[in-house]
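Design a sequence for this backbone.
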């Protein structure tokens, strides 16, 4: 079954009832100026039905990506992002289910970082729904794989520290909780401790043993600083947001450092007090203000987790975020294509990288940009694959060297040929006179040379 496509951007799914466009296009339409504070015309309620921070079983949540999106649908959430810890593994499933249920899913991830003092800092990344796989996935995945390996090593260290205080927990106990696809983390250890009867709740597990600075706490063996995480997100074409700054012991130095690295936004919407305090800090640094529930499941791992959409975030914040993010995503697309366009043909051929592909569902404005840059680079389009339009891909390939040369070759010109012959014979070609009179003289001489009468 072919999914309904948005009339404005071509993205499948997320079509509002009785409308031909998706909810994101309804919000960031061409007439909306995100720099203005007046968003009264925004077609979503004053308190938005959006949530940009949630977790699934792809990391440490208790619901699968599909189950999570189904919960969002029944909860009235229209726009959301599944931001699992250090992995994008759940994004595809979330987007597929979202397209069926009318929930717009923005690809996201929550990247783990640490300060030099060992404090945990989380940076959220949001990517373009249209071309996140073509641009962002390959660039960020290598780092995410290293973080995954570091997470597993960290779990082993934590289990060793628990053993030293006479709490016996095996890796198999943690893996049983995490499942085959789950990214290992402290919440899995906390659940395993509950299952073993060591503690009565996950909150108790964190409070007694697993919290930062606790007796079983361990830093990552391989970690990024917050600034490095922000730069990684930008290099991958993403929009960066500092998660739950109220959980930091000294948030201001961390915020300043992240801003210097190019941080785009910060979570501020949690409760009125936090929104006021961190909202003022965000305004001071011209950061986009955002919010999310940090939902992990019906039994969240801490009191800081809320139900989806269970926080007061105004619709103006959603409008501003989507508008600003759109600018970041467009710039990433342009940069990627220009980089590809500058590669030497021989270099591309030697690496067998002579094609560049992108989703056929790119919004028309971005698609026009793709084709303009492609033409300048001497690229030719290979027709999209047939089949389900949601799976179609536009592939560009470098034109053969002979084709590029033939385009640049000049057309035969009798006048230019005559000038070349004159130069070879040692004669100085006469300069062409400017204006119509000069054209008449040149035309008369040409006719005389070919023995043609003016009447002919």
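Sequence:
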């Amino acid at each position: 079954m072919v999914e309904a496509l948005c009339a404005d951007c071509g993205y499948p799914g997320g079509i509002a009832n009785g409308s031909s466009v998706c909810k994101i296009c309804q919000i960031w339409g061409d007439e909306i100026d995100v720099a203005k504070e007046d968003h009264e015309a925004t077609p979503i309620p004053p308190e938005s039905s959006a949530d940009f921070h949630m977790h699934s079983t792809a990391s440490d949540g208790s619901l699968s990506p599909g189950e999570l999106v189904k919960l969002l649908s029944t909860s009235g959430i229209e726009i959301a992002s599944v931001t699992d810890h250090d992995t994008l593994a759940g994004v595809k499933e979330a987007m597929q289910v979202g397209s069926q249920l009318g929930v717009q899913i923005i690809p996201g991830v929550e990247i783990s970082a640490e300060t030099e003092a060992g404090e945990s800092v989380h940076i959220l990344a949001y990517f373009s729904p249209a071309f996140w796989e073509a641009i962002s996935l390959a660039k960020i995945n290598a780092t995410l794989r290293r973080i995954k390996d570091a997470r597993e090593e960290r779990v082993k260290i934590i289990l060793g520290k628990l053993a030293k205080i006479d709490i016996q927990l095996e890796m198999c106990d943690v893996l049983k909780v995490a499942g085959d696809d789950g990214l290992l983390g402290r919440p899995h250890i906390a659940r395993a401790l509950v299952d073993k009867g060591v503690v009565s709740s996950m909150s108790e597990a964190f409070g007694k043993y697993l919290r930062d600075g606790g007796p079983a706490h361990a830093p990552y063996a391989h970690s990024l600083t917050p600034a490095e995480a922000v730069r990684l997100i930008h290099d991958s074409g993403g929009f960066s947001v500092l998660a739950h700054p109220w959980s930091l012991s000294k948030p201001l130095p961390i915020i300043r450092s992240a801003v210097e690295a190019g941080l785009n936004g910060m979570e501020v919407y949690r409760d009125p007090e936090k929104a006021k305090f961190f909202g003022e800090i965000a305004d001071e640094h011209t950061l986009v203000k955002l919010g999310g529930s940090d939902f992990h499941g019906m039994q969240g791992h801490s009191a800081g987790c809320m139900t989806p959409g269970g926080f007061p975030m105004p619709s103006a914040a959603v409008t501003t975020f989507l508008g600003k993010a759109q600018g970041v995503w467009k710039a990433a697309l342009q940069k990627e294509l220009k980089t590809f366009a500058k590669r030497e043909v021989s270099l591309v051929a030697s690496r067998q990288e002579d094609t560049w592909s992108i989703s056929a569902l790119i919004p028309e404005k971005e698609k026009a940009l793709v084709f303009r840059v492609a033409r300048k680079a001497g690229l030719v389009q290979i027709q999209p694959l047939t089949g389900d339009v949601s799976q179609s891909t536009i592939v560009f390939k470098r034109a053969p060297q002979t084709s590029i040369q033939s385009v640049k070759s000049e057309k035969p010109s009798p006048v230019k040929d005559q000038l070349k012959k004159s130069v070879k014979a040692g004669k100085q070609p006469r300069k062409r006179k400017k204006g119509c009179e000069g054209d008449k003289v040149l035309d008369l001489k040409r006719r005389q040379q070919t023995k043609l009468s003016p009447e002919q």
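The chain is about 45% helix and 10% strand.
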